[in-house]
Amino acid sequence: SDQRQVFNLSAVAQTPKFSNRLLRMLASDWQFSPIMKIRSAQFFTVTTGVDNALSGEGGQRPNQALLNPYPANQTVSSWILASAFTAPTPGTYGSLSPYNMKGPGLFQVDLALSRTFRVRETQSLQVRAESFNLPNHMNGSVPIAATNSGAFGQIQSDISGTSGLTAGDQRIIQFAMKYTF
After folding, report:
1. Neighbour tally for 84: CB within 10 Å
2. Considering only CA atoms, which of 111, 119, 165 is closest in space to residue 138?
3. 50/82 Cα distance (integer angstroms)
4. Helix H segments across the chain?
5. 161: left (phi over 0), alpha (psi -120 to 50) or beta
6. What are 120-178's pLDDT values in tens digits?
7. Per-residue pLDDT for 95 more than 60?
8. In whole angstroms, what is the distance from residue 30 CA to residue 81 CA?
9. In whole angstroms, how far apart are CA 52 and each of 9, 48, 97, 147?
10. Model confidence over 116-135: pLDDT tens digits?
11. Would you say the C-alpha torsion 12, 16, 17, 21 has a positive or negative sign?
């Protein structure tokens, strides 16, 4: 499919080793690692869900009746308007072109914070905290796009395809400790 704008940021920043004893104990050897993903809207095709052209092929497109098929206040339960589309007359194809509707975009921030403590010359202890989807932002998939569906225009799964809008998108925070010898 067509993905117009994609921004990925991955970085690792580490604090320096300070010469002051107190600063060295508190602020040295910290690592901050963000990963940010931002993608523009996913394109999808509205279909009638039936064989209007009487050709034996499914996935045919309707006619677009309204210039703006998006509601003024888009939500996951109303992403596009059913009233914006009409079924073509039997034996004809609809005028709507493929992949011209926009679904939701993606915004995700993952973050890791860690610090390594030297125990002896060859031994160290690393303490780590990681967060996935830190802002707890819901990243929905494209809405149901068959006009004959009772759920037309509703977003019913997350970007990973998991049903239920919070199934794959909740904020996850984990802590870890690693002793190297």
Report:
1. 21
2. 165
3. 15
4. 21-27
5. left
6. 889 999 999 999 999 888 888 899 999 999 999 999 887 755 555 544 568 899 999 99
7. yes
8. 50
9. 46, 8, 16, 12
10. 998 888 999 999 999 999 98
11. negative
